[in-house]
């Protein structure tokens, strides 16, 4: 169907607003949005609906229409990350599937995995497979930003697996050590 | 198609009085719906929070696609039953979009009596699944029920359309290849356990979701065994040991997100093709429907004025405009989809019944879905009409309606009385969906006539016993009958008893019918075939 | 000595490119050593000859002097340019290179040795009457080191004797933590420099970092090329440098430049070098001397018009400077902005990723010294500095304006950089006023961000992302047209 106008006199979402279902992280903050197609495409954020259009130019250059505004942007997509250069700023928008978001939220309560707070290299591994550790025990020492940082056990448990070895480099959020719950 | 010319004077005092009256009725409807959806004793909401549960409305908000409609069905089910204590019959039912797929949702409302199934709850669930079967709609079950309401078990357990029908319908859906997902958000005990078990997919929430034929107390009583809920039927046991459940989820939000992924894998059905074109909003403002409907139910109005405020561009191709004028027949478009419309402009005469039957046959031949706009007091009675065979003409119309293969949608616009109810595809005639407007009435005859008939019988009976009644005594007999009758013929009573799929604010009719029709087109339309028309 | 026909560049990234640019201009063949981790880097595309080197880590390869000397011999290079970092201040390497009959483009090994040992250097400078800050040196008496350090009083700065580039430096404001911090600094010193010896000096609060570029030839001529101010630092590392310093009066400039020339002369310094000073409350103290080309050398080139790499090569070839101090004039103001692969909002933690898009400001707006190319992976294997933007203006205000324009036009997508942070930093009122000190960034955490996003921009970037990601785009389009058209209707 082509462009559709909404007929007059229809009520919109008198109650039961739906939550936007796509999760993005923008500048460290979680945002929910949705892209709807109603003849034209609309970005839905909270209760705002704005028509959007992206016209690809040469290379990564694009022209982005958002409501009445026009932006010349550069866009690069890398997996679930979209890097946008807009108004002289570089902004990374990371998309995460809702299932993963809620899974991670739940995992955060258990927090059984020590993850890399930043990219770096493993200097030494203190954790021993099968060993009992207390919350705060040093699991390994990493080097990042020319500084040593101790990665500590997020909670008490048994070292179930060590995912890295000394000398190995890793990216941010890499799982370093997994702890199993105490019996 | 030509546009209808409205003859309504929107500036007239009459129009304004109507508008005021009907707007108030619509507001009253919205208020009742709001209360049925949200008004709960604080302790019930607190209990949900304590259990880490979302309300059913929050669950829906997480489940449905943003920017898409949700057609809620039978919102006011049970509003006249159980002392009004079981809003919505403790169930939410509706058609919405999940991950881009049209689905029907059946959800227990745990904030009402712990989601217990009352007789009308069972009726609502069965109806929801009947809709799924008839319209091949995938089902998302949100299971959070305390189980059957035992004091009323005789009215919900054993009969053909009682609780067993839920599981029968689930099985039939599966046989038809219509997919189902269940989310186990609470305890699914005894019969309730079969809902997730009979679904193609199910997701269970760790900690709050459980499935078992007998809960821990029953197990204790039966075998003396002491066992925890988690151990007996929790998420981890069922997803890793028994295979009763498929996906464990950490939280309700997680479970709903998994469900959205599952539904997102469903193959979209190929819709039955009907004649379509670019949609167009009605030329006349649907808001004027309030002014079109007379304050007094008995005052006749032109159904074309209603048609002009529901269908695309207010356009209507009328068939046999000069014949059988009390039944308006013709083609219109609803959000671009061609439909055949039958609307009453008075009592059904022989010619109007014949015209109706003929038009229904045309639409079947042409694969055009039918929409019935009811405002019918019945078929004409009287010597001339009986002699002209009004009964066999009515039978023809009923035969055509009953055997119609194209989907039918019915709206009780105003009155729906007597055999007219049947001829205009009442509940018994398997309209795919049936909606009522707030002031509409449905009964075998009008309240006044019925009360009159019943009072007369009583008077005659007493007269035989030699008693002669004063006017006041007659009134004391008549008034309660009248009251009772009025109550039971109201739209609120009809919807309470699931005689329809919900009361609509008239201005919502266009969208509601479009969503219903879209769903109806999931099912292929068979070639026309009828029984014997009495000629 | 004849001019060189082949020079081996023993470095990587932007500096390798920068050195080769001058070599090319002078018709000198460039040879480049590279580790496989640098595959796809622009330096490789520029080199006339490439020799792969290996190591247990990529960094180890670039630190492996014997492989590099072997490479130089293999390609017949007469000289090695070490760039900065890696082997540039390794006296032993310089000595081995020279012993192999190859010219080390830099100072003598003795000068590197003298200035490389921070303790010796301080003493050398102090003994010759130049100002240094109060300090305690571990080597003087290791047993009383901590006690002596304590008597200087807080705040203190612990530094590895063998250090440089901010590695292993620690500020101690609370003396009860002194022992702990000393231990940590020692372990870092051992690891980075193979030398755990430390020294401690008074930490001057809110100091400015001002350094003077010097050039000396092998004929005893030494000149300065004016100062650079490098007070904008994070984690003791410079991120924005400018010349001239807005803090100096002509008189003070004269004093500080004279001191630098004096120190270089005393050390009989040859080639390009930098004498760093701490400046605070009208006084300056010798900090250290860097015996190599500095990262920030372009700002000096911009205001003097002198190509420092070219001068280094000429000096190494034994040519005299051929000009004296009076011939060197400064013109206008220059600013360098270092583009780092890092997340300012996450405490400047390094970032990684593939360079997907690279868009540079025009040449007439900014000089771009670039170390990465599209498609290249930015890893944590190397220093996260990946590019430098250098602008020049008639006045500092004009330079600042051009700096902002250049940053706005520079785009590197795929790996987060500090560019947005740099823009905010350069528009900070204190920075604009020239009121800077090395702790400024630390004192203004709001600069690090994340910068708030206005509704419009947020909406725009979410739209850009949604329209660019198939999983989102298709998810939205998936709603049946009828339902999408009806929208969020409820009955």
Give the distance, in angstroms, between the N- and C-terminal Cα atoms of chain B: 34 Å
Mean pLDDT reading of chain C: 93
Q: Work out the oligomeric state of the chains in this entry.
A: heterotrimer
Corresponding CATH architecture of the largest domain in chain C: 2-Layer Sandwich
How does the helix and strand content of chain C classify structurally? alpha+beta
State the secondary-structure class of chain B.
Answer: alpha/beta
Structure overview:
The complex is a heterotrimer of chains A (183), B (535) and C (491). With 183 residues, chain A is mainly beta. Helix content of chain A is 7%, strand content 54%. Chain A has one helix spanning 98-110, and strands spanning 22-26, 29-38, 40-45, 48-56, 61-66, 69-78, 81-86, 89-96, 113-115, 120-125, 132-133, 138-144, 147-152, 157-162, 169-170, 175-180. An eight-stranded antiparallel β-barrel of chain A has the order 1-2-3-4-5-6-7-8. Chain A has a four-stranded antiparallel β-sheet with strand order 9-16-14-11, with no helix packed on it. A four-stranded antiparallel β-sheet of chain A has the order 13-12-10-15, with no helix packed on it. In chain A, strand 1 (22-26) and strand 2 form a beta hairpin. Chain B has a seven-stranded mixed β-sheet with strand order 1-2-3-4-5-7-9, sandwiched between helices. In chain B, strands 10, 11, 12, 13, 14, 15 and 16 form a seven-stranded mixed β-sheet that branches. The two termini of chain B are 34 Å apart. Chain B is globular and about 75 Å long. Chain B has three domains: 11-40 and 271-444 and 491-535, 2-enoyl-CoA Hydratase, Chain A, domain 1, CATH 3.90.226; 45-263, 2-enoyl-CoA Hydratase, Chain A, domain 1; 447-488, no CATH class. The model of chain B has no long low-confidence stretch (mean pLDDT 95). Chain B has 535 residues and is of the alpha/beta class. Chain B has 20 helices and 16 strands. Chain C has 491 residues and is of the alpha+beta class. An eight-stranded antiparallel β-sheet of chain C has the order 14-13-10-11-12-15-22-20, sandwiched between helices. In chain C, strands 3-2-1-4-5 form a five-stranded parallel β-sheet, with helices on both faces. In chain C, strand 1 (6-9), helix 1 (13-25) and strand 2 (29-34) form a beta-alpha-beta unit. Chain C is globular and about 90 Å long. Chain C starts with 5 loop residues before the first strand and ends in a 5-residue tail after the last helix. Chains in contact: A-B, A-C, B-C. The interface between A and C is large, with 80 and 73 residues.
């Amino acid at each position: 169907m082509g462009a559709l106008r909404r007929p007059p006199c229809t009520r919109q979402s008198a109650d039961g607003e739906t939550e936007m279902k796509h999760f993005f992280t923008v500048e460290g903050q979680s945002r929910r949005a949705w892209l709807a197609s109603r003849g034209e495409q609309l970005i839905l954020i909270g209760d705002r609906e704005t028509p959007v259009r992206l016209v690809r130019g040469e290379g990564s250059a694009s022209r982005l229409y958002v409501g009445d505004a026009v932006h010349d942007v550069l866009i690069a997509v890398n997996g679930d990350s979209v890097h946008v250069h807009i108004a002289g700023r570089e902004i990374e928008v990371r998309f995460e599937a809702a299932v993963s978001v809620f899974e991670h939220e739940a995992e955060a309560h258990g927090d059984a995995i020590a993850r890399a707070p930043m990219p770096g290299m493993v200097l030494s591994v203190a954790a021993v497979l099968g060993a009992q550790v207390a919350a705060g025990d040093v699991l390994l020492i990493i080097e990042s930003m020319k500084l040593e940082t101790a990665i500590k056990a997020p909670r008490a448990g048994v070292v179930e697996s060590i995912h890295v070895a000394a000398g190995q480099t890793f990216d941010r959020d890499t799982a370093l050590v997994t702890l199993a719950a105490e019996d | 198609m030509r546009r209808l010319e409205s003859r309504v004077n929107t500036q007239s005092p009459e129009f304004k009085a109507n508008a005021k009256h009907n707007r108030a009725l619509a507001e009253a409807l919205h208020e009742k719906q709001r209360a049925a959806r949200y008004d709960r004793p604080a302790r019930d909401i607190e209990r949900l929070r304590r259990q880490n549960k979302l309300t059913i409305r929050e669950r829906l908000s997480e489940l449905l696609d943003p920017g898409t409609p949700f057609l809620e069905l039978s919102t006011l089910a049970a509003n006249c039953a159980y002392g009004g204590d079981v809003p919505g019959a403790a169930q939410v039912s509706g058609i919405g979009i999940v991950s881009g797929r049209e689905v029907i949702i059946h959800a227990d409302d745990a904030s009402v009596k712990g989601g217990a199934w009352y007789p009308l709850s069972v009726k609502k669930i069965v109806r929801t699944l009947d809709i799924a079967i008839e319209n091949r709609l995938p089902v998302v079950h949100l299971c959070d029920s305390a189980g059957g309401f035992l004091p009323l078990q005789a009215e919900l357990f054993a009969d053909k359309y009682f609780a067993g029908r839920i599981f029968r319908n689930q099985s039939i859906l599966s046989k038809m290849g219509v997919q189902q997902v269940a989310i186990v958000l609470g305890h699914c005990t005894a019969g309730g356990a079969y809902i997730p078990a009979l679904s193609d997919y199910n997701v269970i929430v760790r900690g709050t979701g459980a499935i078992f034929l007998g809960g821990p107390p029953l197990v204790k009583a039966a075998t003396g065994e002491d066992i925890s809920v988690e151990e007996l039927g929790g998420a981890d046991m069922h997803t890793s040991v028994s295979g009763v459940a498929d996906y464990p989820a950490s939280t309700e939000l997680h479970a709903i997100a998994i469900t959205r992924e599952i539904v997102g894998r469903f193959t979209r059905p190929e819709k039955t093709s009907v004649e379509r074109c670019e949609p167009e909003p009605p030329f006349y403002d649907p808001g004027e429907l309030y002014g079109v409907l007379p304050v007094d139910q008995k005052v006749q109005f032109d159904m074309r004025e209603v048609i002009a405020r529901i269908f695309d561009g207010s356009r209507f191709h009328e068939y046999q405009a000069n014949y059988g004028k009390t039944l308006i027949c013709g083609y219109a478009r609803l959000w671009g989809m061609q439909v055949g419309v039958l609307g009453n402009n008075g009592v059904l005469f022989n010619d109007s019944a014949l015209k109706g039957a003929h038009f229904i046959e045309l639409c079947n031949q042409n694969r055009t879905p039918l929409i019935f706009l009811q405002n019918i007091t019945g078929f004409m009675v009287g010597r001339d009409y009986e002699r002209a065979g009004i009964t066999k003409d009515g039978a023809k119309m009923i035969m055509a309606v009953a055997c119609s293969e194209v989907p039918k949608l019915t709206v009780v616009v105003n009155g729906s009385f007597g055999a007219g109810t049947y001829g205009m595809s009442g509940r018994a005639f398997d309209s795919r969906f049936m909606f009522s407007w707030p002031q509409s009435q449905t009964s075998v005859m009008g309240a006044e006539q019925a009360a009159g008939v019943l009072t007369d019988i009583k008077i005659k009976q007493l007269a035989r016993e030699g008693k002669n009644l004063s006017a006041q005594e007659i009134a004391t007999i008549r008034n309660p009958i009248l009251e009772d009758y009025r109550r039971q013929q109201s739209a609120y009573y009809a919807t309470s008893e699931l005689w329809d799929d919900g009361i609509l604010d008239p201005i919502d009719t266009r969208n509601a019918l479009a969503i219903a029709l879209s769903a109806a087109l999931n099912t292929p339309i068979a070639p026309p075939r009828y029984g014997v028309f009495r000629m | 000595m004849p001019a060189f026909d082949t020079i081996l560049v023993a470095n990587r990234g932007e500096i390798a490119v920068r050195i080769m640019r001058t070599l090319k201009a002078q018709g000198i063949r460039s040879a480049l050593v590279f580790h496989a981790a640098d595959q796809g880097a622009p330096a490789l595309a520029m080199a006339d000859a490439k020799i792969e080197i290996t190591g247990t880590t990529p960094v180890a390869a670039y630190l492996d002097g014997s492989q590099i000397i072997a490479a130089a011999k293999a390609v017949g290079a007469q000289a090695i340019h070490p760039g900065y970092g890696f082997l540039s201040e390794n006296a032993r390497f310089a000595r081995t290179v020279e012993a192999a009959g190859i010219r080390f483009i830099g100072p003598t090994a003795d000068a590197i040795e003298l200035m490389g040992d921070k303790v010796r250097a301080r003493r050398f400078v102090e003994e010759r009457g130049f100002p240094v800050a109060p300090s305690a040196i571990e080597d003087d008496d290791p047993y009383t080191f901590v006690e002596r350090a304590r008597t200087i009083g807080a705040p203190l700065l612990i530094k590895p004797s063998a250090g440089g580039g901010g590695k292993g430096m620690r500020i101690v404001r609370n003396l009860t933590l002194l022992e702990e911090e000393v231990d940590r600094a020692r372990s870092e010193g051992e690891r980075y420099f193979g030398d755990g010896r430390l020294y401690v000096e008074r930490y001057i609060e809110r100091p400015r970092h001002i350094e003077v570029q010097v050039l000396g030839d092998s004929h005893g001529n030494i000149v300065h090329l004016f100062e650079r101010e490098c007070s904008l630092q994070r984690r003791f590392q410079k991120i924005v440098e400018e010349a001239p310093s807005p803090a100096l009066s002509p008189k003070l400039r004269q004093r500080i430049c004279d001191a630098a020339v004096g120190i270089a002369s005393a050390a009989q310094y040859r080639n390009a070098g930098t004498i760093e000073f701490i400046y605070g409350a009208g006084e300056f103290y010798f900090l250290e001397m860097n015996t190599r080309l500095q990262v920030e050398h372009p700002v000096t080139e911009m205001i003097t018009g002198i190509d420092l790499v070219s001068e280094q090569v000429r000096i190494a070839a034994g040519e005299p400077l051929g000009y004296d101090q009076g011939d060197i004039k400064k013109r206008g103001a220059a600013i360098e902005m270092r583009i780092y692969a890092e997340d300012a909002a996450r405490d400047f933690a390094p970032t990684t990723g593939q360079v997907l898009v690279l868009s540079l400001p025009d040449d007439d707006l900014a000089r771009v010294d670039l170390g990465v190319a599209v498609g290249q992976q930015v890893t944590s294997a190397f220093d996260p500095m990946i590019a430098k933007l250098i602008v020049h203006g008639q006045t500092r205000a004009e330079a600042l304006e051009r700096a902002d324009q250049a940053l706005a036009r520079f785009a590197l997508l795929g790996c987060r950089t500090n560019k947005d942070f740099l823009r905010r930093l350069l528009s900070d009122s204190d920075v604009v006023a020239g009121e800077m000190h090395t702790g400024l960034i630390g004192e203004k955490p709001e600069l690090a961000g994340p910068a708030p996003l206005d509704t419009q921009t947020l909406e725009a970037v979410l739209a850009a992302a949604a329209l660019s990601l198939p999983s989102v785009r298709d998810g939205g389009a998936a709603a049946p047209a009828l339902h999408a058209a009806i929208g969020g209707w409820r009955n």
